[in-house]
Amino acid sequence: MNRKNTEDNLIIGNKIFKSRLMVGTGKYKSIKEAIESIEASKTSIVTVAIRRTHYTKKIGKSNLIDGLNWKKLFLLPNTAGCETAEEAIRIAVLGKEINKKIGQTENNFIKLEVISDSKYLLPDPIGTLKAAEYLVNQNFNVLPYIYPDPILAKQLEDIGCSTIMPLGSPIGSGQGLQNLYNIQTIIENAKVPIIIDAGIRTSSEANQAMEIGASAVLLNTAIAKSKRPQIMANSMRLAVISGRKCYLAGTMNKKIQAHASSPNDGLLKLI
After folding, report:
1. Whether 111 is catalytic
2. Catalytic residue among 111, 119, 245, 269, which?
């Protein structure tokens, strides 16, 4: 990580993004609430499940894609709902077409999800690797969602994925960062951005992810299912900024014993 980058923008592939908080679009009570929350987050990247939406361009903003300002936001289509590599590949191609329809003709990003497990929603490592290799060869910028497996993460990086997105804990569970050792191992060994995706519930957990060196955080349920989503979105925004600054600053070393803040030399002698 470059600690000397004063601009400190998130770089994925050949794209530069100002925000390190990425947000999803599902589970909101209304389209209005979703739009207001996304605006409050000040995110640069919004991810949309292509299998669960459609592009209409109708007056009245009947769909969230219609209601967002894509001149200011970058669409990250995702393949949520795909159970096989073949399904994910087809949806990725469809996502690219939707990018073109909203005017992002050069956008070839895809968040790759291959999930055959309907109970625990854990990503399929073999299907993910298979789909990722094909899509990379088709000039997609692939952002694969994985269980925090350091070996799989390195394999995906080696075949050309633009980032790796290990889960903090299962989708929508709100359990936080459950496999911290593996996540830290992935971060330490990666040469591409590592984005923590899924499981984050509180701003302190988003902050923790950034403090250990994650490049960004992607979350949805934590905002959408909070009592006041717009406020939670702003809270997550600030947590990500704070955690990143802490990481860049470098933390003090832990010590077993207490150490006085003031020096012992030059103490006044009491008579």
Report:
1. yes
2. 111
